[in-house]
Structures are given as C-alpha cells and as structure tokens.
Write a structure and sequence with these properties.
Four copies of one chain form a homotetramer. By secondary structure, chain A is mostly helical. Helix content of chain A is 70%, strand content 0%. Chain A binds a DNA duplex (31 and 31 nucleotides) through helix 2 and helix 3.
DNA sequence: CGGTAATCGAGACGGTACGTCATGTCTTACA
DNA sequence: TGTAAGACATGACGTACCGTCTCGATTACCG
C-alpha cells in the first residue's frame, strides 16, 4: 500500500516568507484601519511583496482578510476539558472566545467579511467554514453530550440553542450598543440553561 | 404660544419629488445589488437627479442607504395590541419584523450599514437610532410591564434579554447558516421565556 | 441667414487650460524621452491633471502623442510664396520642414506614431491626415502647377515624385545612417528635377 | 596564423533546436500580431521554451525580433548577375527585395525595430548592420561600377543616390499611403537614372 | 564512473504601467 | 437658491508584462 506521493513540484517553489509577510501585513493594517480603508497596494508595500503576488494567491481583498485574520484567530484557540457540567462547559467555550473577539477591533473585520459574504455565496461558505462552523461544532458536541446524559430533553433543537448562545454575543459585537464582558456571557448561558431545564 | 414658523425660505425650495426619486432609486438598486455594487452615478441616473444634489443632502452612500431602506422599513410596521401574555406579546413583536427582514435581501443592506458603522461612530449612532433602538424599545416596554406584573423577577437584566431575543434572529439573517421562519422565532421566545421562569 | 448656433452647452465646460497643460506636458516629455518611455501617470502629474481626464479625451497614448507633437509641428509652419521656379519652390517647401524635423528628436516620436499606425488602421488615417497629407498636398500643388506650365511632362506620376522627394528625407531621419541638412535636401531636389527634365 | 579555436566548452552545450524554436515562434507571432502585441511569455510557451532561456540569449524583445525576422529575410535573398546596365542592375536589386518586403507584414516589424532604434544607439547599429547596410552595399557596388564605367559622373553623391532609391520604397512601406509594386520600383529607378544622366 | 559545470523548463516573484471605475467637488446655465 | 449636466482631481482597482530568481532535471566534459 503506497501513500500518494507529493508531486515533484516543478518550478520555483512558493516563498513561505512572502506568504507570511502578506498575511501579517494584511492582518495588522486591516485590524487597525478596517478592511475597506486598506488598499491592496498598501498591503503589498508593507509586506515587501508585489500586488501581483497577492492576487495570485487570494482572489479578493476579503479572501485575504479572512486568511489573515483567521491566522491570528486560530492561533489563539485553547480547548477546554469537558467538566461534566453543561453550564460550565458552555461558559468555558464562550468566554475565551468572546474575550478574544473583544480584545481587538476584530468586529470591524468580521463585519467586512459578513458584508462580503452577503453578495458572494462561495465566500459565505468560506467564511462560515472558518469562523462559524468550528465554534458551533464544539458547542454542538457539548449539547449532544448533554442530551446523551439526560441533562437536556432529547427533542431539543440544538441548532436553535447554538444560535441562542452565539447570536447575542455577535449581536453586541457588531451593533456595538453594549459591551461584551464575562458577566454578559455568563448571563446568556444562565438564561439559556434555565430555559432548557438545566439545574 | 406660537408654533415655530418655518423660516422665510430664501431661494428655490427643495424639490420633494427629487428627494423621493433619489430614495426610491437608491432603495431599489441597493436591495437588488447590494450597497457596495451600486454607484452614486447609477443612483443619480436612475433617479433622474444630479449627483451634486445627492451629495447636498446625504454626506455618504451609507447615509443614503440608511434613509432609503429605513423608508421602506418603517412604512411596513404595524403595532400589535398588548395581550397580557408576555410570550404572546414578544412573538407578536418579533414575528412580523422577522418576516419583513427575511422577505427581501434586507440582510445584505443591513450588513453594509453595520460594516460602515464599525468605522464611523457618528454613523453607528444614526444606524442604531433608526434600526435598533425603536425595536428594542418596544421589547423593553413589554418586559418592563412583565416585571411590573410580577411575571418576571425584578432583578432581570432587561438589556440582556433583549439581546437574547434579537441576537439569534440577526445571527441567522447575517450569517445565513439557517433560515429565519416563524417556528424559529417562536422557539427563541419559548426558550427565553422558560429561562425567565414564565409559564 | 442665421449662423448655426452652438448648442447651449450643458454642464461644466471643458477646461481649456487643462487641455493645453496636458498637451504641453506630453510633448515635452515625449520629445525628451521617447513616447514609449513616458507613462500616462507621469504626463498627468506633470500637467497637474488627472489620468482619467486624459483618457476622457484621448483614447491611447499614441493619439495623445499625435495631438501633442502636431501642436508644436503645425505652429512652426510658414508658407512660402510661389516663385515660378519648380526647383526653388520645392526647396522652399522641403527645407524649412526638414530643418524643423531635424531640430529636435521629432524622429523618435514619428517612429512611435508610425509604429502604432502599423497595427491600427484608424490611427494610421489620423497620422497621415496630420503629418503626411498636408505636406504632400503643398508639393502636389507645386507639381501640378508645373505640369500646367509645361515645365513637367503631363504624364508625370505626381505621387511617385512626391515619394521621391519626401522618402529620402524620412529615410535619413528614421534610419539615422546620415544627417539631414540643407545640402542633402537640395541634392534630392536637384536629382529629381533633373530626372523630370526640369532645367 | 592560427584560427581561434572554440574554447573547450564546459557544461551542457546550447540546444540548437531550442534556439530555432524560439526564433520561429517569435517570427511567426511577431509577423502576425506585431512586435508590441506579442509577449515574451507567449513566445516562450509557443516555442516550448523557458522565458529565462530566451533572456539568456537575447537581451530585449527587439533584439529577438531582429534575429527572428532577419532569419527569414536573409534566407530569401538571391543575388542577381551584373548585366552591364545600371538601370537593369538597380531594378534587379530592388525588385525582389521590395516584393519580399511587401509580401508579408514585414513593415510592421520594421517599424517596431526602427522605433526601438530611436532610443537605443547600440540597437540602432545592430539594426542597420542587418537590414540597411548589406542592401546599401550592393547598391553602392553597382553605382561605383557605373562611375568607373563612366555611365555616371564621378562627382555623384552615391549615398544620396542610395537614399533616393531606398527612401521612397521605405516611405510607402511604412506610411502605407500607397502600394509598393514593380511599377513603382521601376518608376523610382527611372527618375533617378534620368536624374543622373543615364540613358 | 563520479564530479563539475553549464543549459533548460517550470513557474514564483518584485516591479511598473496599464486602462477603468467610483468618489466627491467643481462650474456652468437654467429654473 | 436648487438643480441637471457633466468636467475634474484623486486614488484604488485588477490585469498584463517585464526581467529576475529559484528550483529540479538534464547533458556534456573531465579527472
């Protein structure tokens, strides 16, 4: 049984340092100024790269923004141990994430990605696959385990519960009408748990 | 006590038909194509107006989008009678609104406004004053009445509850990972009411 | 009898100073560096104009080069009096023109126009209408007059004679294998006149 | 006196088939589309060669164009026997050459070379050494022989006569205001010979 | 036969200019 | 004064070439 060999890789290989420089430059500029206010030229100059090189690997500014921010985003993820308590697990899931999201002007970038996703279904898929689904999946596991344990009734609409958990946090992040802090996250989890009949 | 008379109005008065034509053209084009894909030139041509006239009354494209869409939005509002049941009142508040929001590609425009608001605090205030606060205020009244009635404990964090109600719906509208229908809205209200200890 | 009135001219009129600034900048830069070595951006900056404004009035760099150089070219034209002598008239026609052509690196610009004309029939027509035909026409008049006078046989192929007069001068200008001076021009006219049987 | 031996030739020798493939591809593409419209990438792909290989042997696109077209050009040359008649010898010199030049869009390539030569003295030398001098030299021989024979006065300016012969043909080829056919060539030779006092 | 040296194809890369498009301001004439 | 028409400066866009580079593979000579 032979593993599929990597192809011989003809031609000059992609320069990893350039790739990283572009992503770093994009992330820094976009977080500081917002995606729309940053030009591809500026990113190219900051990265010491060529605009053509950027377009060779990222078709649009938004796809670059997604990769660039996701790089920081995913680097700052820590998995928590399941504790047996649904409430505690949900708080442990949401709190670090909400702290990260509120720690820098990520909301501005998220809003830009969201905006781009509205008119581009392919990009919407990319966006959800990176920023939405992984986090929902973790929540889904916690809730499914709770159903198996009998802590939550078996006819519970898990997807609805996930929206009840993430929706309010996104709401505050994006609309900016109030701050997102640990108290708020705990409050959301408390009401939802109470609503599901969890002690 | 005299009502404040309109000022003498020197020169040619503002043309109301032009104002409406601009708003209509902007709303139609932006709903169909998304705010970013529509240029001010296109709106001007469609409205039979001059670009200078548009900029005279609206400083940015987003402020025009806000006015244009809010005009349709507010025209389609109906106030429901308070029924005595918190749950029923909340459903009566959220359902027509969620139907409206999902009836056309409003989410695309909302996302654009939200995006603009991230980098422009003044516009963020405008946005919230038009699209967020009026609806929250209606919900706030319902919940405050419930507190007065004793249906809800007096230490309830009303703002958090409002986010629990609106957040999930906005979440689905913007992220597009699932549809917003009456069942979903009722589900949200059910869990939240249960969480608050409402029968 | 009413002269055809110019139409009311709606909108902001074209800025004549901008037009002249663009032509001057283009002429100066192109003569100094050659058409190909000058970028539209550079011309725009030098003219204090916008690139978009240039493209609004001139579709290609070559069409701009044509207008710009023709402006200098045509300004430096002086008409000579017919003297009765074909030879003298031809010398009087060709000498000032050849001096002008050799006075600055016009040949470099002409070569660029010629090159562009090879692949663009419409531009070729423009080029000939500006740089070739007016001068040929003057020569044609002289030669036709000579035919009427009987100085030249009536079956003379005028167009061929014109090519015999202009061809050698263009040849030296473009190929650069020898200089174009008054002696050369007179020599060309002498041989051609002798070939036509003119005393 | 020893002929300088080729050096021992270390390393892999140059691939002759590649050289020919590049020249063929360049000639075909440039004649069909014009030098400026053809990119080095396109030539490389058509030739099945690498762009780096092209640049290794030809410093600029124009130098490649020169080699590529000269290859066809020189392959189609036939030497005519001296006949004793100057007029006949000149016609025999110019006619096959003018036929060749007019047989394909060579003028377009010539114009590009000429254009490049205007801004690059070294290339101008190359151009003349390939396309101008060999032909002039043949004409020079004919005319010098005519001087020796006494058919032409000894004080004749041979270079001027050469320009009178080649200039008009180049003029029509490049300016395109009239066709170059055998009649035209014979007409040029006739007038020039008459001008020189040749029967 | 193994090492050294050059050539070659593939293709990534930095850079420059292109020609287009949208924004927001302006200048004119008309209402 | 308000407005339509439309010119204009500004600046970003996304593309196309240029000429250089870095690989791995190839092909000769040379020891």
């Amino acid at each position: 049984m032979t593993t599929t060999e990597a192809p011989p890789a003809r031609g000059r290989p992609r320069d990893e340092r350039t790739r990283v420089a572009i992503l770093d430059a994009a992330a820094e500029l976009m977080l500081e100024n917002g995606v729309d206010k940053v030009s591809m030229d500026t990113i190219a100059v900051r990265a010491g790269a060529s605009k053509a090189t950027i377009y060779r690997w990222w078709p649009t500014k938004e796809s670059l923004a997604l990769d660039a921010v996701y790089r920081q985003w995913s680097a700052a993820q820590a998995e928590a141990e399941p504790s047996g308590s649904v409430r505690a697990d949900l708080v442990a899931l949401l709190t670090p994430w909400s702290r990260l999201a509120a720690s820098k002007p990520y909301a501005r970038v998220i809003a830009a990605l969201l905006n781009a996703a509205q008119s581009n279904p392919d990009f919407a898929v990319q966006y959800r696959a990176h920023f939405v689904e992984p986090r929902r999946e973790r929540g889904r596991e916690i809730l499914n385990a709770a159903v198996r344990d009998g802590q939550v009734p078996p006819d519970t609409d898990i997807e609805l519960v996930l929206d009840l958990l993430y929706g309010p946090i996104y709401h505050r992040l994006l609309q900016g009408h109030a701050t997102v802090d640990d108290r708020f996250v705990r409050g959301v989890v408390d009401v939802v748990c109470a609503g599901l009949g969890i002690s």
